[in-house]
Amino acid sequence: MAIQPIRFFGDPVLATPALPVDTFDKELRILVEDLIDTMHEAPGAGLAAPQIGVSLRVFVWDIDDVVGHLINPTLDLSSDEQDGDEGCLSFPGLLYETKRAYGAVAKGFNMYGDPITVDGTELLARCLQHETDHLDGIVFIDRLSKSERKKAMKEIRNSDWFGTLQEAGQEIQMKVSPHNTFGLSI
Ligand code: NI
User: Fold this and answer.
1) pLDDT above 70 for 178
2) So what's the pLDDT on residue 90?
3) Which of 33, 41, 86, 131 is catalytic?
4) Gap from CA of 5 to ligand 1 centroid (Å)
5) Half-sphere exposure of 24 (CA within 13 A, CB side)
6) What's the pLDDT band for 172 if we cut at 50, 70, 90?
7) Catalytic site residue 97?
């Protein structure tokens, strides 16, 4: 069991697209275990590898008492949408209403390299979208409307954890997302 420090928003690794996994070895299985342990310790409902500083396309979740992991995911989204509060372990204490597709089918691999499909609605679908975004260097505030994001940025700048990063002299990267948001927000 190895709990890893969680990177906060502003860390460049969270804005960097992660690389696909090409070797399904013991190191990958340890990464998945570390992600699950770190998610449970936090506690959180999902965690992506970039959030512990590993830029690989891997994430884990624990939704409705089912723990899962997915490697190199691709997503198919339903056309119907859901509203609801969303948070992220890289933005401690902050929640914003975030529009997402109601359903998502994620295809990828388990840690042994076997192809798997995860079909989720509601919270699981929200999580699959949120975590896949992390692998593309997208964070959930990128999905907010311009005015909501502005409000969020103000709260982030005033948060204790963000102030601590600045005092520590950490390199901080705050970008406006250039990514396609599938028309969910601008
Ligand atoms: Ni997150």
Assistant:
1) no
2) 96
3) 131
4) 14
5) 11
6) confident
7) no
> What type of residue is 64?
D
- Measured in angstroms, how far is the CA atom of residue 131 from the centroid of ligand 1? 6
CATH of 12-167, one of 3.30.420.40, 3.90.45.10, 2.60.40.10, 3.40.50.450: 3.90.45.10
For the chain, the structural domain boundaries read 12-167
Report the alpha-carbon distance of residue 135 to residue 145 in Å, rounded.
21
Q: Which residues surround ligand 1, an ion (CB under 5 A)?
A: 88
182 confidence band (pLDDT: 50, 70, 90): very low
- 130 Cβ contact partners less than 8 Å away, ≥ 6 residues apart: 46, 86, 88, 100, 140
Phi/psi at 183 (5° precision): 75, 5
List the single range of 1-15, 31-45, 119-133 with lowest mean pLDDT.
1-15
